Amino acid sequence: MKGLGQQNHVEQGVRLPLRPGRRPPPLIDHPSELPLRVHALTRCPTRLQDPGLGGVRFSAQQAIAPGTLVELSTLLNGERIALRGVIVAWTRQGPEIQLEMAFLDPQAAFEGRMLEQACHIEAYRLRTAARGRSITLEEAAREWITHHSAAFPAPGWVS
User: Fold this and answer.
1) Range of the domain at 37
2) What is the bridge-based pairing of β-strands 96-102 and 79-93?
3) What angle (nearest 5°) sits at the alpha carbon of residue 105, between those of residues 99 and 110?
């Protein structure tokens, strides 16, 4: 049996409290093929009004306190893209830390969901190339939409 300090130990960080009757945000898992840079900006000056707008779950080097405003950035097709939101929770399982970031408003949720779909399409293209099949970004987009878009988390305002 493994002890608490070994790989199967799960440690839950603090989660921002939800208002009564609210569900946690629907989260999009960011693809590991496109590493994210996480920049903590400040403690969020206002309470998250609607966590149901959705957010992103991603791996990080260290935990960040819930309530911290962050900017996530990555390179996509040679361009830097960035998302802002507030950390709502973190989980550690062995050496891996997963952070959950909620979008701050409907516009950020819309843009974040579109950017994350673009990241998933690029990750699909990279995985396909690693298996020996080179496809264009347009071909990857068509294939990903056909096979995977139905399973992509819907924004919270639709569910």
Assistant:
1) 24-151
2) antiparallel
3) 85
